Amino acid sequence: MILENKKYLSFAHYLADEAGKILFKHYKSKKLKKTFKNSNKRKELVTNIDIKIENIVRKAIFSKFPSHNILGEEKGFTNKGSDFTWIIDPIDGTKAFASGIPLFGFMVSLKYKDDIILGLVD
Prior knowledge:
- The protein is α+β, with helices and mostly antiparallel strands.
- It has 3 helices and 7 strands, in the order H-E-E-H-E-E-E-H-E-E.
- It is globular.
- The chain starts with a helix and ends with a strand.
- About 20% of the residues are buried.
């Protein structure tokens, strides 16, 4: 399982690098679009960049691990019946990102059955 974990960790780093490129490109961008979603009876800020990153990360995961589940903050749960579930927060700190405050990042983790086997914050 250790070799498998290295493969997953390496892939998580790749995902973070791809998300980081998008975050840096759009940080303080005039093209940033803000919307709100209802989450737990409160409105939560979402940007077009949150959605763009999650879509790209989902596509990459399904390309490399087509049978894995994905739980994303913006698009919810895609259940493929796998023991593996990737958990994505495309922009942790969306309010700061949208405000031009450099206190945000990308988060991804991988769960196997009931155990988190990796987590990465970038």
